[in-house]
Amino acid sequence: MPCRACGDAVTQFLDLGRQPLSDAFRSPDDVSDEFWLHLKAVVCHGCHVVQLADPVPVERMFHEEYPFRTSSSRRMSSHFAATAERLVAGLAAPDPFVVEIGSNDGTMLATIADRGIRHLGIDPAANMVGEALARKVNARAEWFDAVTADRVRDEFGPADVVYAANTMCHIPDLPGVFTGLETLLADDGIVVFEDPYLGDVLRLGSFDQIYDEHFYLFSATSVARIAELHGFALVDVEHLEVHGGELRYTLARDGRTPSPAVGALIAQEGRERTHELPRLAAFAAEVADRRDRLRDVLDGERAAGRSVAGYAATAKSATVLNYCGIGPELLPVVYDTTPEKQGRLTPGSHIPVEPFPQDLADYPDTFLLFAWNHAEEILAKEQQFVDRGGRWIRYVPDVRLG
Ligand code: JHZ
């Protein structure tokens, strides 16, 4: 398949094998066939964007039972409150209009709504739209595309800001999104979006950022090129520490001068050969090595008779569990705070997901930390586990037990 963003040729550099849909947590009595895809990553020779090799079924991924909730992390909730304040501070129009694509449970827009600013959230997950509406956020269960963009502009007028967090990289039809943005955005409006950064994935070896929902892995270089194809310019870029390292991109089409950060990061990506095959092949070799070492650590814990449980049934954990061949025999349970995941089985690997034990005495000897991107928040609240001798297994930025 050619590049979904620009149509140029692509080359494969990573094969993560057969994978289920990362957020398809199954009920234990569900006997229907599970959906599988072959998870391979490729890089484009034209725009340099990293993407999945094969199509992903978007309607099966994002629907009225989508289980991920933005507010499931305290740190992310404060990140989005701060983001909303920044967006509000930058609004100059007399009666501004803010649109969020992939608004989920309305965590970010709640602050915008509180300020009395006109806004609209658009998200295909009707259950999450329901939660957003319950917190007085104006949201609709729809896909964002050219047709939706037309309708929204007719109804509300042009948008001064279109924002998206952990959403742009989820939409294979990126050209369709850009057509919508061309329609919806005010002439002097901005598009702001943030997604996991290829540079961080390579640096940390965080291969679990690659799964069905993360169709693209962006960089400053690739976003600048893709934006240009649609008459937009990348005018600012900011590194974010959240979710294991992300970039926040700002696009505009009004000829404003890009900030120095844009050129600096593109130059750095060039120096680090971020999009070149030898660098990507080295990453793939590191991933295979990490798989073997992670399995060794789990085998060691089992041989020593120490109990191990997974910490957080993240979407990312699907890649780890299925690529490393970890099932209930090595990891009998994964604990998670999300009610919709509890009582279900992890996708593909079929490990029971349960609520965290109430009593510390029921904690395992060792936790395998799947939500490594929230380590600070989690380690702070699990200090007692460590105090009584509990240990963590990590696999980002390297395999480590301690
Ligand atoms: P977290 C999701 O990925 C899916 P996931 C999506 N594709 C994406 O891009 C990112 O979010 C943004 C649990 N948890 O945030 C709750 C605990 O149990 O790393 C959730 O099930 N205890 C849209 O799933 C899961 O982790 C905790 O203390 O990889 C969320 O994991 C915390 C903090 C979380 O995203």
Structure overview:
InterPro entries: Methyltransf_Zn-bd_dom_put, Methyltransf_Zn-bd_dom_put_sf, MeTrfase_14, SAM-dependent_MTases_sf. It comes from Micromonospora craniellae. The protein has 13 helices and 17 strands. The protein has helices at residues 58-61, 74-89, 109-114, 126-134, 146-156, 174-184, 198-204, 220-229, 260-271, 277-303, 315-324, 375-381, 383-387, and strands spanning 10-20, 36-44, 50-52, 97-101, 118-123, 139-141, 159-165, 185-196, 216-217, 233-240, 246-252, 308-311, 334-335, 353-354, 366-369, 391-394, 400-401. The strands form 3 sheets. It has a 7-stranded mixed β-sheet. It has a 6-stranded mixed β-sheet with strand order 14-13-12-15-16-17, covered by helices on one side. A hairpin with a 5-residue loop joins strand 10 (233-240) and strand 11. Helix 5 (146-156) runs parallel beside helix 6 (174-184). The chain is globular. Ligand JHZ is lined by residues 68, 72-73, 166, 213, 243, 312-316, 336-338, 341, 371, 373-374, 377-378.
Please trace the helix and strand order, writing H or E for each element: EEEHHEHEHEHEHEHEHEEHHEHEEEHHEE
- Describe the main β-sheet briefly: 7 strands, mixed
Spatially, the strands of the biggest sheet line up as 6-5-4-7-8-11-10
Can you identify the CATH superfamily of the largest domain? Answer: Vaccinia Virus protein VP39
Q: How many strand units? A: 17
* Percent strand: 15-25%
Look at the structure and give the CATH class of the largest domain: Alpha Beta
CATH topology of the largest domain: Rossmann fold
Multimerization state: single chain
Could you tell me the mean pLDDT? 98
What structural class do helix, strand and pairing data support?
A: alpha/beta
Q: Give the termini separation.
A: 43 Å
Q: How many helix segments?
A: 13
What small ligands are held by the chains?
ligand JHZ
